[in-house]
Amino acid sequence: MGRxxxxxxSNGEANPTAAGISFNAGLLHMxxxxxxxxxxxxxxxxxxxxxxxxxxxxxxxELLVIxxxxxxxxxxxxxxxxxxxxxxxSGLFQHDSNPSKPFPCSFxxxxxxxxxxxxxxxxxxxxxxxxxxxxxxxxxxxxxEEFDRETWTVNLRLxxxxxxxxxxxxxxxxxxxxxxxxxxxxHRARSDRLRSLLNVxxxxxxxxxxxxxxxxTEFLRHPCMLRRKEGLYLASHGTAWLCxxxxxxxxxxxxxxxxxxxxEELIANTVIYxxxxxxxxxxxxxxxxxxxxxYLFRWxxxxxxxxxxxxxRVFVMHIARAFDSINFRREPVYxxxxxxxxxYGIQIDAIERKNPSVEVLRKRFAGRIIHTAGWQSxxxxxxx
Length: 384
Hints:
By secondary structure, this protein is α+β, with helices and mostly antiparallel strands. The protein is about 30% helix and about 30% strand.
C-alpha cells in the first residue's frame, strides 16, 4: 500500500465527506466514514482535473469528486495517472510494461478535436483522451506520417483510409516525432527481417495481407513452422490470410540496443498464424507454437470499424486486432467472465466495452480443437 492522501469525497451533489485515498496494485482504496471501498482503476473511464477538484467518471454511471487535497493535489494527480495507465496496460491490453513518457496534445479522428495524452510503445500508440476511454493503434496500421509546419500538425494515415490529426504538442513536437520515427523504423526493421526470414513478400506485423495458396504452401516449408501438415490441410479449405503478432512483453525483454531482437528472438516473440475462411467459419491456426489449439469463429456481421474495406477484410481485422490487444492470451478468448476475474484478474467486461474487436472475438468464438489424434476428423465434422 502506498501513501495515503487526506481529502474529501462526494458524488458532486452531496456534501463532501472526509476520506483517505491510497493506490495499490491497480486499485484505488477509499476509506471514509462508513465506507471502505476498492475501485479498480480499469473502471475509471475519464479523469478531469479542475482547479482544486478532481472528477472521476466510473463505470457504468457514477461520478466521484475528490477535493481538499491541498498541496498534495499535483502529487495525487501524477500517481493517479501513472497507476491508472499501468493498470490499463496490464488489464485492458494484457501488456506487461511500464508507461512511457506521455505527450499532452489534441487529436481528431474524423471529428471534433479532443484533449489527450499519447504514449509511444514498440508496437503501438496509446491514446488517453481526457473525456473518453483509452485506445491503442498498432504501428502496422499506420501507412504514412506527414508534418505540417505551418500548423504544427502531425497527420497519421491509417491503412483503412482514416486520418488522425495530432496538434498542440508545442515544445514537445520534435521529441514526439523523433521517438515516433525511431519506433516506426524499428518496427519496419523487425517486419523486414521477419519477411526475409520467412521468405514472405508482403507480410507486416501484425498486418493481415491476403496470400495465394502457392505462397502459403511455400511459406509452410520454413523450419520454424511446427504445424506444416495442419497448415497445408487448413489452407486448402478456402481463402487464407497470413498474420503475425508480436508478443509485447517478450519484445520488451529481448531487444538489443537498437530495439531489434536477433533472428531467434524475433521468431520466438512472434505468433505466426493463418486465418482461413471456410464457408461460414473463420479458422485460426497458430503455425510456430506447439501449445495452441485450432480456434473457430462464426462468420457474421460486425460493426464496420474500417468502412473503406470490404466486409470480409473488416471481420478478419477485428479478429487480428483483438488477438494483438490481448497479447495472444488464450483465456480472454473463451473463458467466462467470472473465471477470468477470479483466476486471472481479467475484467473482460471492461475490455469488451472499451475494445470492440475483443467483443467481436468473444461473441463470434465457436470453439477450439485440441491437436490430438482425432483433430482432423473433428474439424471435418464441424466444417460439414
